[in-house]
Design goal:
Shape: globular
Largest sheet: 5 strands, mixed
Strand content: 5-15%
Radius of gyration: 17 Å
CATH superfamily: Glutaredoxin
Number of helices: 9
CATH architecture: 3-Layer(aba) Sandwich
CATH class: Alpha Beta
CATH topology: Glutaredoxin
Strand order of the largest sheet: 1-3-2-6-7
Number of strands: 7
Structural class: alpha+beta
Length: 221
C-alpha cells in the first residue's frame, strides 16, 4: 500500500511477519496508527515479507497449548497469562482476538505464496489483514485452500486464479528465497519492520514508538 502526499518524505517499509503471529497484527495495527498520526509528513510504501514461525508444521496443524509447551516450555498458566496480554494489547489497537475460536496453529506457507501474488495485483495489504482476521478473530485455518481462495475473493482478487496458484507450486521458490534472505540478514523473530533497507524496528511496539522512530528517520533522510 502506497500513500502519497505532496512535499513529504518517502519511506519504504518491509514488514517481515507471519500470519500466525499475534504480535505481528498488533505491530501492524500500531504502525498504521502511527502513520495516521504522521499524516502528510511521510509517504509510505509497505511490502509484506514472508517469515514462517513453524515451517515444518504439517497441514493438520497442532493444538496451540501443546505446541507452546513443546516449543517454549510454557505452562498452562503462562500460556493463559500470555493470551490475556495479547488480547488486551490487540484491543488497545482496535483488533479483536477471539481466543476461544483459535485452538490450533497451522502451516502458513501457502498463505505467503498467495500474499506474494497479491502484491503484484495491488491487493497485498488487504489480503494480509483478511488473513489475520480469519485466523485470530474467526478461528479459521490460514493454510486451508478453500479459506485462502475465499479470502482472495473477498479482497477483490480472482478466486479461480487463487485456486490455480494454490493447487500448484507457483511462487514457492520466490517465497523461499525471500524467507532465506531475511534469515540470512539476521531476522529470527517477527514482526521485524525494516525502514529504507537499513533501520530495524522489532516487535509489536506501541503506536507512539513507531511514530517517534518514523519521524526521526524521515527527518534524517
Amino acid at each position: 500500500m502506497t500513500t502519497n502526499y505532496p512535499h513529504n518524505k518517502q519511506l519504504k517499509i518491509d514488514f517481515v511477519s507471519d500470519v500466525s503471529c499475534p504480535w505481528c497484527i498488533i505491530g501492524l495495527k500500531s504502525l498504521e496508527q502511527a502513520l495516521d498520526h504522521l499524516g502528510n509528513e511521510v509517504a509510505t510504501e509497505i511490502h509484506f515479507q514472508p517469515f514462517e514461525l513453524n515451517p515444518q508444521m504439517d497441514s493438520k496443524g497442532q493444538d496451540i497449548a501443546e505446541h507452546l509447551a513443546e516449543k517454549y516450555g510454557a505452562t498452562a498458566e503462562q500460556t493463559e497469562l500470555n493470551r490475556e496480554a495479547i488480547r488486551a494489547r490487540g484491543a488497545s489497537v482496535g483488533f479483536t482476538f477471539s481466543m476461544e475460536k483459535r485452538s490450533r496453529i497451522y502451516n502458513t506457507f501457502d498463505a505467503h505464496r498467495l500474499l506474494h501474488w497479491a502484491e503484484q495485483e495491488g491487493k497485498q495489504h488487504a489480503l494480509k489483514h483478511a488473513l489475520f482476521n480469519a485466523y485470530f478473530t474467526e478461528g479459521q485455518n490460514p493454510g486451508a485452500h478453500d479459506v485462502l481462495a475465499d479470502l482472495a475473493r473477498q479482497v477483490g482478487l480472482d478466486e479461480q486464479r487463487a485456486r490455480e496458484i494454490l493447487a500448484s507450486d507457483e511462487y514457492a521458490q520466490e517465497v523461499r528465497e525471500r524467507e532465506q534472505y531475511y534469515l540470512n540478514s539476521g531476522i529470527n523473530s517477527v514482526p521485524a519492520i525494516i525502514i529504507n533497507d537499513k533501520h530495524l524496528i522489532t516487535g509489536g511496539q506501541p503506536p507512539e514508538v513507531f511514530e517517534q522512530v518514523l519521524r526521526q528517520i524521515a527527518s534524517d533522510s
